[in-house]
Amino acid sequence: MTENIVSRFWAGLSLVQKSIIVGSVLFIANAAAFTISFGNIQERYQINFLEEAGTAIAKTIGESSKFGIITRNWDILSAQVQGLLTGNISSITILDVGGNPLFEITGSERVVLDDAAVRQKTLSESPSSTERLFDPNGSLHAIIVSQMIESEKRPAREEIGLFTEKAGKERIGTVIVVMNARQVYRELAESRKTFFYLGLLAIAVGISIIVIFVEFTARPLKKLVIATQKVADGDLGYKVEIDTKDEIGTLASSFNTMLERLKETQEKLVMTERLAASGRLAADVAHEINNPLAIMKNYIYLMRKKRMKEDDPNQPTLTIIDGEIDRISRIITQFTDFYRGYQIPLEEVEILGTLKEVIEFYRGKLKERDILLEERMMGSGKVLANRDKLKQVFLNLVKNAEEAIPEEGKIIIETGREGGRIRVSVTDTGTGIKAEDIGRIFDPFFTTKGVKGFGLGLSVTYGIIKNLGGDIEVASEAGKGTTFKVMMPTI
Amino acid sequence: MPTLNAKILMSGLLLLMLPSISHSNDLIFAVKSSGIEPYNLALKGAQEVFKAKGLGSVVKVYDIKGDASIWKEALKDIKEERPKVIMTFGTVATELAMKDVRDTPIVFSTVLNPEESGIVNSLASPGGNVTGASLDIPVETQFSYILDMVPAVKKVGVLYNPKETGLIVERAMATADRMQIQLIAEPVNSETDLPMAIDRLFRQVDVLWSVADATVFSLPAIQKIIVEAIRYKVPFMGISPSFVKAGALFSVKWDDIDIGRQAGEAVVKIISGSENISDIPVATPREVSISINARTASTIGLTIPDKILKRAEVFK
User: Over the stretch B103-133, which tens digit does the pLDDT of each residue have?
Assistant: First the structure.
């Protein structure tokens, strides 16, 4: 249940929000761990310090109080001890060798000690000892430091005269210093409070930094998001403007490149669609035109044979009209052939043989026009196609090349294999195609030949090759010539 | 059930143990405060006496090295073996023995000022289970040596801590009066008082006398007093020949072995039962002589009378 709510909540967050939450949680955890461990270290340090301070004070008193103890001079003793009394000291007691208190001074907060235990300490053999007293709840409330007070042993009377060596030391009492640990805990609590607020401040500053950092990092990502949305909406011309040098910058530039490619591909696709659509439209129109043409031709025949004499002056005119009707009919046939191309049965066709048939058919014409023909047959292969259609393709290409050459020139026909495909290219040294026309040369009815051409040859060629699963490309430079390259998959 | 053989064996063992228990009352234990020479010499003197009286030697000797915990070990033995007399050498051993042993006679030796230390009530009748041989040379004897050394003496000075040697100085005042000497006593309550006290005293006295005062004569202070006495050209009578060796002009001197002999004689009296311990007065040195430091004498420009020089031990 809870898991569901959490995962749903998580799924509803943006990447920026997630980053901020994860960063903040890590930062808070870090700050908390640091605060706790610092607190512990501080506590240990403070208590050790208290213990060391107690030991040092006890030692100092042990050294300085001898005179006061021996002479029982409480004024001197009081002055010496008073000077050492600090806020952390609960009491300082000086006891005689028997453990009876000689002198006591108390600090701000007195810790009541068990008299018997204290007496025990004063009788112990060890020169100094430290004991930690705990409350029933386990917290330290006092540190008791006891220090033996020793004095040079007084030599025996005869020993003065005998000049004996050092007489050694003897115990003359014990000093007990009780350090108040509660004060330390109070100070610790105070410093923890300060530390806590500082921690909160650090967390606030830290989270702000994380937010700013994530925002800065995410800004280009957001741009990318906007870009993808624009692209999804169909705006392929959109460009992401990110110039950072990091991964996101690289991603953006890749995205831009991808957009450019996508745009090109789409343009190609649009053109292909346009070609196909216009081809089908033209074929439909052509089919509809065929019927009236047949009727017209019929009536012209009737007029010439039955209503007109052989030498009627209108005969030549009607011959021209009849010829033009034939011409229209041919165009229509070409179209319908193209349209019917889908239904034509396919067969295995040997490319080189087909190409050579076309070359032989055309060789005479080229010779007549003084056009050199160079053949570079570097490979062949069988393709699945319709021989007549394929012949038509090659014939169109060679014819196109011949027509592109105004006076004299050269046509190069080349074959070769590229991967699993066979390549046939036809290059001429003719007039070439202008750059602005090159995108439209496969369009139906587009022609640069003026009245001479219908503008159907290349579009039919294009249609056949595409129908056979091949590709056709053109490369041209105005004034220098053109190359058409056909690629067909081999069997 | 123990067999007959076992019973015989056990009775035999018991019979063997009896003699050691029975003769423990003849024992004399000796407890030395430390291992220094004067205690050893005194013990030697006591042994001489025991040998001469056919008592055999002291059975056990303890050196407690000034340490109360070692004394506890000795005390364990004493309680087990119950010696007839305990001999002590030096104040430390004597005081420890007196504190822990009440039912056995204690005979001390090599103790200075036992009256002032509270070891005995008086030299004449010590009281309790204690007597012995002290190192106390009567003040009168000491003053007469001063007169011998410096016949023109009028003012004699002494440094003392009233809390420690007040009683001795008080009595010495009376003795000085009798001998027509003015005794000027300068109190020293702590080591810090000493430089001022020396300065005050040394300016006005002809001779410096001394009492065994631990406040005045701490080891560093002894050196200072000796040096200052020479600088002020005050003849200084030290407590012992050790002072003279260190640079004091002179001191009276006792015989360490003879002190031991005196204590030994007291032990013999107790063991033989001829006298009760409380009736035996504390002995004082019977052989007294003088030690002189000739170099100090010439430094301070003092000519020592020939009659003294003849019988003196002279350090050069």
Answer: 899 999 999 989 888 899 888 888 889 999 9
Count the domains in chain A.
Answer: 2
The CATH number that applies at residue A94 is 3.30.450.20
For chain A, 491 residues long, the average pLDDT of each consecutive 10-residue run is 82 84 87 84 87 90 82 80 82 84 79 70 78 82 88 78 69 87 82 86 88 84 84 80 79 85 82 70 73 86 83 85 83 66 73 89 87 89 86 89 89 90 93 84 74 71 85 89 92 84
Contacts of B152 (CB under 8 A, 6+ apart): B206
Domain of A463 in residue numbering reads as 346-489
> What distance in Å separates the CA atoms of residue B175 and residue B137, rounded to the nearest whole number?
13
Cβ <8 Å between B240 and A67 = no
Pairing of the two strands A140-152 and A128-134: antiparallel
Closest Cβ–Cβ partner in A153, A154, A160 for B239: A160
| A297 part of a folded domain | no
Let me know: does A359 contact A391? Beta carbons within 8 Å: no
CA distance A448 to A88: 109
Domain final position from A138, A165, A189:
A189
Distance of CA A288 to the CA centre of its chain: 58
Report how far residue A207's alpha carbon sits from residue A74's, in angstroms, rounded to the nearest whole number: 62
Here the tokens at position B45 are: 């003197």
| H helices, E strands: number in chain A | 12, 12
Q: With an 8 Å Cβ cutoff, are A163 and B242 in contact?
A: yes
Indicate whether A433 belongs to any domain.
yes
Asked if residues A174 and A148 have their Cβ atoms less than 8 Å apart, the reply is yes
State the nearest Cα–Cα gap between A188 and chain B, in angstroms: 46
**Closest C-alpha to A339, from A424, A275, A267:** A275
Domains in chain B, CATH or no CATH each? 4-135+256-279 (3.40.50.2300), 139-253+289-315 (3.40.50.2300)
Cα distances (angstroms) measured from residue A211 to each of A33, A218, A219, B175: 22, 10, 12, 103
Q: Name the interface residues of B facing A (CB cutoff 8 Å).
A: 33-34, 36, 38, 66, 90-92, 110-113, 116-117, 135, 190, 212-214, 217-219, 222, 238-240, 242-243, 246
CA nearest to A125 within chain B: B69
- What does the alpha-carbon distance between residue B215 and residue A157 come to, in Å, rounded to a whole number? 11
Q: Are A206 and A31 in contact (CB under 8 A)?
A: yes
Domain boundary among A160, A189, A218: A189
Q: Which of B31, B32, B34, B99 to mutate to test the interface with A (most CBs of A within 10 A)?
A: B34
pLDDT confidence band for B140 (50 / 70 / 90) = very high
Cα–Cα distance measured from residue A380 to residue A350, given in angstroms and rounded to the nearest whole number: 7
Closest approach of A156 to chain B, Cα-based (Å): 6
Q: Do A157 and B214 touch (CB under 8 A)?
A: yes
Does residue A209 belong to any structural domain of this protein?
Answer: no
